[in-house]
Structure formats: structure tokens, C-alpha cells
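**User:**
Make up any protein.

**Assistant:**
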Amino acid sequence: MTQISAPATSPSVKQKRVLRRVISASFIGNFVEWFDYGVYGYFAATIALVFFPASEGSIALLSTFAVFAVSFVVRPIGGFIWGHIGDKIGRRSALSVSILIMSVSTFAIGLLPSYAMVGLFAPLLLLLVRLVQGFSAAGEYAGASAFLVEYAPPGRRGIYGAVVPASTASGLLLGSVLAAVLTSVLTDAQLETWGWRLPFFLAAPMGLIGRYIRTRLEDTPAFRELAQEDEVIKAPVFAMFRDHWRPLVIAMCAVLLNAVGFYVVLTYMPTYLTTELGYGATESFVATTIALLTYIGFILLTGLASDRFGRKRMLFIASIVFILFTVPAFMLLGSGSFTVVVLVQIALGGMLTLNDGTLPTFLAEMFPTRIRYSGFAVSFNLSNSLFGGTAPFMATLLIGLTNSPLAPGWYLMAAAVVCLGAVLCAKETFHKPLREV
């Protein structure tokens, strides 16, 4: 029999005002972060021409995706540091600093010189800025999720947690819309010279707005209660490895489907459609934009469903669906019909929301309050470092090695198998008060 979480209580007018600010502050930070990652992925082919020497075949594109992947190397380091700050000093402090670093580094990409101007210094500078972005991003997703879940009214943690992936998809959506517009109205020469830089310049004002909102919020009720009871620990990361290594391993494996699926389905797909299946750049961006619009709606419904049916059940269904239907979906992408491509992308995005809309709350509930930020940040960033950031690179490499456009589908299916095993080992926590997790 399905267990139901505690009934939601109606917050007061003041509480509603605070909750709206909490949602806005959490939304805009992830929006800026994933807007950057999306734009980088969508303009990968152009960035390859700008920052790397002219080369044959897919070498320049692989180099671009390699820089994308290397930026994830520092994310586990960032996870440890931001987790420590968030669990020891407070969630708000960590989030206020991380969004500032992210905004400045994203803006800086638009200012970087090309390979034609400075030679090898161009890709080196690009790598340096991406490393800074990777470090700052390590604290954003985990911190925003913990912030929302700890502020959420009883019985609403799932829908509040789903705001985080909704904000990431919104950032990708804006990136996709801008990519579609710029590739349709600018010539290739204009796009390569200055057009690709425009989206990166938008990060600074958006990030400053997000930081302004965050600095005017109190820390979460759960963390303030912890501080008042003098239960904040000096070394949360050490306590996490010592006392909570099992949920940490489960969480890392559970993240795998999100890590691979998010980057393959929502950021790599336009490049895949253009370079592997021969669709036009504008067509590819339009298809991804439509898929992202439906993804945002689906993901909030998944958050509601996880509050009703539980986190494990939703993640279990997501894994099974990907195991059964991913490869057939990639087969349909090669049908030659643009309508079919759009429908398949909508279907893949809907499948992904079953996982992504549940995962933030699932991970937040895996760890007690005193190490929640650390546990979430370390598990999420380790998996994303190893498998998420490398997903576009691996997809491109596997296609080259196997000479099969279905290779990304098999890779995604393997990630779903690992996620399924982790979910089966996890405990259900959606019906418990957060303090008792």
C-alpha cells in the first residue's frame, strides 16, 4: 500500500512571501549556471572554429567537448569546499558567493580572444575560465536543492525540489532560443566573429539579480535550528565519509542517469542532429527548444507525483523506461523526418523528467541536516564529473569507434541500469519529517 507524506499545511501570507523569494533566489542561480552550459554545448561547433586550429574531421569538435569535460574535473573539489561552507557556515553564504563567481566567469568567456589572435593561449584561457565555472557550479545545484527542500512546507518537498531542474531546463531553453535565433539571422562569418559571444554577456546582470535576492534571505529553518542547538559540526565532509558512506555510494550511482541523460538529451542533441544525422543547425535548435518547453512542464508534475507516490517509485520507473526505450528512440531519430525528431526529443525529455524531477529531493533526503549540503554536493558532482561532463565527448568518441549513430543510446541505457541498482538499494524517505531523516 502506498504511503502518503504528511499533509501540506497552508502557510501564512508572510511565509508565502518568503517562500516566493526562496524559489526566485534558487531558480535564478541554476538558471544562470545551466544557461552557460547550454550555450557552450549549443555553440560547440562554432567554438571549435574560434578556439582551436583548423583540423580535419571531428578533432576540433572533440577538443571543444574535451574542454567542456575537463571543467568538470574541479567539480568534486568544489563539492567538498562548498559542502563544507554550506554545512558549517550556512546554505545562504555558500549560494551567494557561488552565483557571483559563476556570473563573472561566464561573462568572461564572451571576452576571450580567438586562436587567430593569440594562438594556443586561446584554448588555454578558455580552459581556465571553464575550470572556474566548474568550481562555482559545484555548489549551485546541491545548495539550491537543499535550500528549497529545507524551506518546503510539509508534504511539498518534492515539488519544491523540482524547481531546481526546472530552472536548469529554463536556462537551457533560453540558450536554445538564442542559438536558434542567432544561427538563423546571422551569417556563418558573423556568428564565428562575434555572434556566439552575445549569450555569454547576459550572465552578469542575471547573476547580480540572483545574488541580490539571496543576500536578503535568512538561512533555512533546518540549518538555523541546527545552529541554535549547537549541532553544527566542524568537519562535515569527514563525518560524511565516516558515518554515511553507504548512502553516499548509493547517491553517486543514482545520479548516473541524470548525469548522462541530461547532457546527452538536452545539450549534446543539437550537435548530434547536425553532425551525425545531417539536420540544419536552426532545425536542430528548434527541435531542442520544443523539447525543453515540454520538459519544464513535465518536471513539475514529476515533483508533485514524487510527493504522492514516493521518490523510489518515480526513480525506478525512470530507469526501466530508459532501459527499454532509449535505443529504439535513437533509431527513430534517424528516420529522416523532422516531425519524428521533435516527437522523439519530447519523449526523451519526458522520460528524463521522471528522474530529474525526483532526484534533488531524493538526494537531499538521503543525508541528515548536519551533512546534507556535503553529501548532496559530493555525490552529485563526483558522478557529474566522471560521467556528465564527459557525456558529449563519450558520445562523439563512441560514434567514431563503433561507426554507429546508436552509440549514445546504448551509453544512456547502461547509465539507467546502474541507476536502477542504486534505487533498489535506497530507503524510502518521502513520508518522514526532514528532521528524522
Observations:
- Confidence is low (pLDDT under 50) at residues 1-8.
- Residues 121-151 form the longest helix (31 residues).
